[in-house]
Amino acid sequence: MVNENPNLHHSATIDIVLRDSRKTRISHLFAKYPSVCVCLAFVFAIICMMLAIPNMTLAEDNQRAYLVWDDIRVKRHDSYEEAKEIVEVENQKTSNIEKQTENVDDWVVWILYKAKSSNILTQASLNEMSTLETKISQNKRYPHICLREYESGNAAPVCNVSKYSPVSIFADRTSQSTIDARNQELLNSSTLYQDNKTYFQKTWSTSSPSPKWARTLIKHGGPLDIDGRKYRYYKEDEDKQDEYFIDYVLDVYDIVDDFDSANLDIYFFNFDWFNYQTNVLAMRDFAYVGLSLLFVIVYMMIHTRSVLLPLIGMLQVVFAFPIAFCIYRYILQVTYFDLLSLLSIFVILGIAADDIFVFVDAWNQSKEHEILMTDLERRISWVYRRAAHAMFITTLTTFCAFLATSLSDIMPIAAFGIFSACVIASNYLLVITAFPGVVVLREKGLTKYREWKAKRNGQDTEAAKRAEKEANYTPAGTTAAIVATGAATKSNPDNTASNVGRVTQEDVEANVIPASPVPMEEEKMSKFDRFCFSKYSSMVKKGRFFVLGFFLIWFILSCIFAAQLSPPTEAEKWVPEGHWLMKGQEAIEDHFPRGANDDAQKVIIMWGVEGLDKDTIDDPWDPEDVGKLIWDTKFNPSTTANQNRLKD
């Protein structure tokens, strides 16, 4: 005979709920001491923050960081650069270098002029150039950083802001005819033309004598004498001297930007300035993280119907970074940290929100099991097991994905993978230690609020509690599964007919018998849950072969296009074309011929060096630590035979 009692179908579910809600030390801590759990987790995070913040500085821009250090071409270039620096430093140490007489290539500033008319070689345009360059020379820092060069008639080196400028080339600007005559003189003399063509548009020639573009090169030199300290050579405390130049070049840019010209469009470029401004823009754009945080918080508030839980969740994201940094720096000993590593915040935002949704949904689902609603410790145990396992799977997959990135030969990408993995692990640590305590504290607060509200409204609090518990444990139209099958309870040891289906609080507290879970009725579901339950699941079931076929085709097409990916053929541009930061560089590349101070491909032939001893590297994450140079002691260029071989 078939038993028609629907509660018998829930007996297996009851066993699972009982098993998954076994009380543990962790559940006891969260239920009895939630505030202690939260405080301990956040105190630990604050300690990590105090340790991390002093060392959480971004690494300086270094092109070598993005090279494959084990590549033979990189090794050879490293050997050359190391040998070059050693020789230069040794020569500078033994020589008496006058201040600001050593030209520093990275300190060259380009001022680029574009005529608003068809010809830039006019009296008005050249006079405006002269006025601007005079303003630059009047900057308070200019005399302390300008390149001092010897000129005829001067016993000591002097600075000349317009030495490498059309202003000096066309020194006589008394009339337009004088300027035109000088222009023809330059074009008709091959020597003068070769010496000066770098300052004018590349199309400037006898057939096109009226250039629209011109440029000035302002050179600067070291060693500097600043803040009461005279450096012996540029490489001595190079960073400190570069800082002074950055302060100066920002002043120069402001002068150029504020200059009001009626005849010229003026642009500015310097490599150090460009790198500095790129970092400023990146950090400014990084502020948009706040918008991402705001969006996530608002969405979480809507989903969780709580203000506290999303705010604590985002606080966990913030605290995850210093914890991760301590693991990254002090345990794993990774010293490289750049802007790329900070981008992991966008990844962790999604993961943190997902973890909070999982935990809160598990907490809400626990309301469907009556036995859990009378024992907070049993409830948090059930929720913790259910949520922690689900969150662990999503965390582990993402953790492993980023950890795989750490195998990259490109050091900053490897560092990014390691740091991101540490952030993900740190977030999981916080979400299973601090967040459950927050949820329990919120639940206790809501319970006290309901009691206070009931008391204010004149209701019997204890009677309301009993009514609520009995309603929870004997829902209308249901009976306890074990009672329905003839089992005895503490309150009904004889299993009398009058007490069948009646489960009291005494039974629950004795952990003898739980009431069966009641399937949620469709009309009580949210609109989205109802759609997934009634329509979407049916659609997927009916169209399962179509769905599988669609994604199979999608996968095949993705593989085909992925196989066609190739390395970039040109340098990556950090900002789009036409951006104000790029206008100066684009003008140099598009309108001017290559000059001695422009970037160009260099072919280097080197003798006397065997390579680098990589075993002497102190910090494998320092792009400037290339190892100890190994000189070729057998190399001797002084003999006649070797001289002839070098010549050949």
Give an overview in words.
- This protein has 648 residues and is mainly alpha-helical.
- Helices cover 55% and strands 6% of the residues.
- It has helices at 11-20, 25-32, 34-52, 72-94, 123-137, 166-169, 176-188, 190-196, 238-258, 271-286, 289-304, 308-331, 339-342, 344-365, 370-373, 376-405, 411-431, 435-456, 461-473, 481-484, 505-509, 527-542, 544-563, 583-591, 640-647; strands at residues 102-103, 109-115, 213-218, 221-222, 225-226, 229-230, 264-269, 609-613, 628-631.
- A three-stranded antiparallel sheet has the order 3-2-7, sandwiched between helices. A two-stranded antiparallel sheet has the order 1-4.
- Helix 11 (289-304) crosses helix 12 (308-331).
- It is elongated and about 100 Å long.
- Residues 1-10, 470-505 and 507-519 have low confidence and may be disordered.
